[in-house]
């Protein structure tokens, strides 16, 4: 089984990196048979390739540079390192948009409280009315205009996460008429609301 794994790793690396075995080994390993190619030689050759590929992986230092913010995404910078155009951030348009995003966050908290009070609450109508994608995306993009290009790599990802979370929440809310929502479905909805609230909080943290 170990040899099978190493062999598959070898094939993948050969395809990506153009690995070429030494002429010596080529002669002995043409058919990769146990008699023509010593298993030890074969593993040594592959081990060298795998070792080289490991050396090319991103270092722990690079991973630590970004921390765990935004679900571990390497594109999401820590808010304290964000580069912001203060004049744009202070503009009326950006401040209005930012206040609007705070309102969306408050709405998420209200939905969670409503579900905790009554697990059968239908939040679908509220979602469709208050979280119109066009208006929401517009507010997020207006605030985003205050950030530099590198910071936007992270905030853009958060914007996509917010829109996706809302879509998933609306899907989870759907319930067949006459069938009560189970405890498990309620837990899923509360979890999605927590996830959505966190995404809004992380996004707002960039402009606080």
General description of the model:
By secondary structure, the chain is an all-alpha fold. It contains 10 helices and no strands. Helix 6 packs antiparallel against helix 10 and helix 9 (149-173) packs antiparallel against helix 10. The radius of gyration is 26 Å and the shape is elongated.
Describe what is shown at a glance.
It contains ten helices and no strands. The chain is mainly alpha-helical and 208 residues long.
Count every helix, treating DSSP H or I runs of 4 or more residues as helices.
Answer: 10
Helix amount, in percent?
A: 55-70%
Overall geometric form = elongated
The oligomeric state of the chains shown is single chain
List descriptors:
single chain, 208 residues, mainly alpha, elongated
Give the topology.
Layout lengths: L1 H16 L5 H6 L10 H17 L4 H7 L19 H5 L1 H26 L6 H7 L2 H12 L4 H25 L9 H23 L3
Helix pairs in contact: 1-3, 6-8, 6-10, 8-9, 9-10
């Amino acid at each position: 089984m170990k040899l099978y794994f190493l062999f598959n790793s070898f094939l993948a690396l050969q395809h990506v990196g153009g690995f070429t075995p030494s002429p010596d080994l080529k002669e002995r390993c043409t058919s990769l048979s146990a008699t023509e190619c010593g298993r030890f030689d074969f593993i040594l050759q592959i081990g060298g390739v795998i070792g080289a590929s490991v050396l090319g992986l991103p270092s722990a230092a690079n991973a630590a540079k970004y921390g765990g913010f935004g679900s571990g995404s390497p594109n999401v910078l820590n808010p304290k390192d964000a580069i912001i155009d203060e004049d744009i951030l202070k503009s009326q348009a950006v401040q209005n948009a930012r206040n609007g995003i705070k309102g969306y966050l408050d709405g998420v908290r209200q939905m969670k409280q409503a579900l905790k009070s009554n697990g059968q609450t239908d939040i679908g109508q509220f979602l469709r009315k208050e979280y119109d994608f066009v208006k929401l995306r517009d507010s997020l993009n207006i605030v985003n205009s205050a950030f530099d290009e590198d910071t936007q790599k992270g905030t853009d990802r958060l914007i996509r996460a917010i829109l996706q979370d809302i879509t998933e929440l609306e899907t989870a809310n759907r319930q067949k008429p006459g069938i009560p929502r189970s405890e498990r479905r309620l837990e899923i909805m509360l979890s999605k609301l927590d996830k959505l609230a966190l995404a809004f909080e992380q996004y707002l943290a960039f402009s606080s």
